[in-house]
Specification:
This protein is an all-alpha fold and 196 residues long. It is 83% helix and 0% strand. It is built from 6 helices and no strands. The chain has helices at 2-5, 8-72, 78-101, 110-138, 143-173, 182-190. The longest helix has 65 residues, at 8-72. The protein starts with a helix and ends in a 6-residue tail after the last helix.
Length: 196
């Protein structure tokens, strides 16, 4: 009979395991929530970069097409074609940026956003026009090689400015509305305390 009652020792081991689990759970739950929030934020950032890349692809296609047609057909000089091409690409870029890349951005000052966007665009335009003109002046004389060098200079300039422009748009132009602090939100729901 004593051999049958002896298995009471293994029952004490499972009792100590549940006691340690609740102690570690409160410590790991906030860490798990923070980790999930970081991953969600990282996922949102990568989606935004993906949308920015797609928008840049559309704008670059419009701009590069305009540049090659206008300059290749001898309608405009390389610098003038770069100006027109940049303006042509800025229109879809702004519309897609405001409505698709940063849909949660503050919409109370669209004029300020548009002006800032066009200022960044004009700075890019000035630099790309300058470098495209320099490339055209120094490009080989053969028609195909000349046009290829001018096109590469134009794309290269925008590629170099791509990440910088994203940072400016993200930080300054398309910031989301400031979230309401939790304490204020809770006070609005509960209301002011009555006489107690």
């Amino acid at each position: 009979m004593t051999a049958v009652l002896h298995p009471s020792a293994p029952q004490s081991a499972p009792q100590s395991a549940p006691q340690s689990a609740p102690q570690s759970a409160p410590q790991s739950a906030p860490a798990a929530r923070r980790e999930r929030a970081k991953l969600a934020c990282l996922g949102a950032t990568w989606r935004r970069w993906g949308r920015y890349a797609a928008t840049s692809g559309v704008a670059t296609g419009v701009s590069e097409g305009a540049l090659l047609v206008l300059y290749g057909a001898h309608v405009l000089t390389a610098s003038a074609a770069a100006v027109v091409a940049s303006l042509a690409g800025t229109v879809p870029s702004y519309a897609m940026g405001r409505l698709w890349i940063w849909p949660e951005a503050d919409r109370r000052r669209p004029g300020r956003q548009a002006a800032g966007y066009w200022m960044v665009g004009l700075a890019s335009l000035a630099l790309s026009s300058l470098l495209t003109g320099v490339a055209a002046a120094n490009a080989p004389s053969g028609r195909t090689a000349h046009l290829a060098v001018v096109g590469i200079a134009y794309i290269g300039t925008y590629g170099a400015l791509w990440a910088l422009k994203f940072a400016v748009y993200q930080r300054f132009l398309f910031r989301p509305l400031a979230p309401v602090p939790v304490e204020e939100d809770a006070m609005e729901r509960v209301g002011s305390p009555g006489p107690g």
